[in-house]
């Protein structure tokens, strides 16, 4: 789960990591109060969206008086912000973070993530803060330092010290910096993060170390033990069809193509998307109904495909194991009748009770193109698109 | 021949009385798997279809000599179930559960470092040596005894591949779902090593997907250590970066784990990579004959 910068900073603050004075507004009436709360001008106005590179999209502005603050606010609040990471449709800006403008002397990078290869948590730090970690890794790999944390002992002060010395920080900053590193690790573990990143972590001219930006992602699998995080989810940042699908435990991701596909199993769903591409068409979505889909889930899945105005052909690809093909076929036929689907539908079924399933489609009186194997299905999808 | 599990494997089921556990225990029994015990805390001394139930794994192991465990326990308790099995001396732990927090799996992997046990999964359809032993949720009947090993991060996509193979008369020695999570037990490399040594396996199919670097590691291992042919398919060429594609581990993040890089790395190592998922069976046939 992604959360906003201001929410991430609240978590950092709760772990005694210094953050700039900040105030979140959702309407322009709150501007004077926000400015007062952060200690007056100049103020940094930051659009809160679930995507990075906001600066490049005009989502971060420094303002020096109320007029400028008003202009920045009306230019951002309630609009959609497009950045190199949002896609052309952008993300809605419903919150603005007003922050004190700090005098920065140095920008660092500090991040904690999961190292899948070594099955451990790993700490990353660099003196090249402010740019993306992927770019640091490519452009100045020698300035990127990594500590893989042994789960048996966790992150210890010696790890933190070693990172500080590797970064070449002034000794006077050692205690502040080590404290931040240890706190960020504790936060990462306590809150089941999949990513906790402070970029940049700045050294101010006064010699303070402050988290100027923050990005925290939470492990979805661990949300059950953090009921307080439910309130942090901002569904406005998600695609509405994806929000709808999540209500029925359907894994749905909206894409740009025109072949709506419904598949059981994530791997097969991805392979189905790839297959569609292979015949020169383009998938409109990823939709995994899961191994144990019920006929209600199938019906809801079909509805979501129909909501998507880009969809021109529907392709259902099911490998029945535990989910029997006849059960599925009944579900699809019922849903197709109820929803009065006019779009061409290509169906590929394999596995348990496949013959009965195919017969149900054939006898339904509805026009399904039932395919024999994935190759044939792809061909039928391409044909349906060209009709 | 086969790897890891065969007709001599004695299986216990953790969570045997739950919905999933009960259903799949019956399926496994139907397939001929030697299920010797179940564990459900509080239901010790009861029976499930004639199979004795125990309160703890250690009691089940002592009484029945079980050496493998199938874990059908909800995500909040599954990591604990794995630890209990390993601590009790179970050698083959198959964790079917999807949705275990990543931090918990890091602890499990750490505990297992110097233990004499292998973990399959979590978030896996399981493992099957056709005709001998099935520990998992895959439909048994689509498989056929034979000489091709399959290693996969996916469920239904594996069934698809097995089905393509069986339909053209190519059987399987052992099929393993290694799991769709970021932190898993056995990986491609461990299993490639076992298949290379197994007399009953003549070729291996890798079914990979976006996320992580396990396929890249497999490519490096193949190049240095293997004589048997390997065919690979990577799902997710069309997957957008930064999005979790169903499986917790299927995400391209920070420029790592995209399908194009995996395909290039596998091909550079000399592995046949199939681009069209409907051609996997045919390609294995080309490699074998």
Descriptive key words:
heterodimer; A: 387 residues; alpha+beta; Dna Ligase, domain 1; D-amino Acid Aminotransferase, Chain A, domain 1; Rossmann fold; 3 domains; six-stranded antiparallel beta sheet; four-stranded antiparallel beta sheet; 25% strand; B: 289 residues; alpha/beta; seven-stranded mixed beta sheet; 9 helices; 14 strands; globular
Describe the 3D structure.
The complex is a heterodimer of chains A (387) and B (289). Chain A is built from twelve helices and 18 strands. Chain A has 387 residues and is of the alpha+beta class. Chain A folds into three domains: 21-100, Dna Ligase, domain 1 (2-Layer Sandwich), CATH 3.30.1490; 104-231, D-amino Acid Aminotransferase, Chain A, domain 1 (2-Layer Sandwich); 239-386, Rossmann fold, CATH 3.40.50. In chain A, strands 7, 8, 9, 10, 11 and 12 form a six-stranded antiparallel sheet that branches. A four-stranded antiparallel sheet of chain A has the order 1-6-2-3, covered by helices on one side. In chain A, strands 14-16-17-18 form a four-stranded parallel sheet, sandwiched between helices. The longest helix of chain A is centred in the middle third of the chain and has 17 residues, at 174-190. The model of chain A has no long low-confidence stretch (mean pLDDT 93). Chain B is an alpha/beta fold and 289 residues long. In chain B, 34% of the residues lie in helices and 22% in strands. Chain B has nine helices and 14 strands. Chain B has a seven-stranded mixed sheet, sandwiched between helices. Chain B has a seven-stranded mixed sheet with strand order 9-8-11-10-12-13-14, sandwiched between helices. The longest helix of chain B has 13 residues, at 19-31. The mean pLDDT of chain B is 96. At the A-B interface, helix 4, helix 8 and helix 12 of A face helix 4 and helix 5 of B.
